[in-house]
Please model this.
Amino acid sequence: MSKASWISVVGSLNVDLTFRVPSFPAPGETLVSAEVVTSFGGKGGNQAVAAKRAGVEVRMIGCLGDDEQAGQYREHLGEEGIDCSGVMRTEGRTGVASIALNDEGENTIIVHPGANLQLTPAKVEELENLFKGSAVTLLQLECPVESVVKAAQLARNAGSLVVLNPSPWNPKVFESGIPCDILILNEGEAEAMSSGGLAHFLQRGDRTGIVTRGALPTWVFTGGKMQEIAPPEISPVDTVGAGDTFAGVFAASLAEGREVLDSVRMANSAAALATLQQGAQEAIPHRDAIAEMVMQHDAPS
Model:
């Protein structure tokens, strides 16, 4: 595989505890979960797996703890075929996320960062060589903002396209002047940035803004205009990880040389497929399934 098909993902690695509930609890209310599932997650890990299954080579940069789950997660990434040379083991527990999933497939999430907070700018700088040869570097905000900024700087210096998914939302990353080529936002993040922030970001004509909107058409701001790309129509079972699937597949498609709009079409199809099964990484589709969904969605009715 050519160097152009490599991407670097810098981000979080969590163990997910998913509770299936009929509805989300009100303050003071106790609900009994019908099922609880332990799985691997974290926005960084999810996006890395999505990119790898989409067909590119992936380097993961992040931190795990010194607990038993850390070893299990590293083994899992290796089984996916992801380069773990940038996954560092630190003292303390691996990050954990508690996810409530209701009968409509919607979710609420509480995250304890754990070892993810140990991904310091100094640690990122030690791994500068891992950005070399990467066509795309994909970033999120479940790690310290200063480290995300450092990763973006190193990626830019290495000639990599920088894609940022600013989730969970933190305005400090933009106040830092992070070098970034493409933003992937959901509706809530776009609204948080709406006070001129997105327009300011797009003032430099070679930048792209993407706003995912669930079942509604994805907005793509590029080349001075906005275009809409409709996702496939599906009945979601579980929306956990759909946004991460979109980001990972979008980055993978760019790394293979596709244009932004075609990459959004692939990412829309992949995200739709990811909602048809329970779990985050368990539901992430592989390349053949994504290509088939794209063909079905683009076929004339």
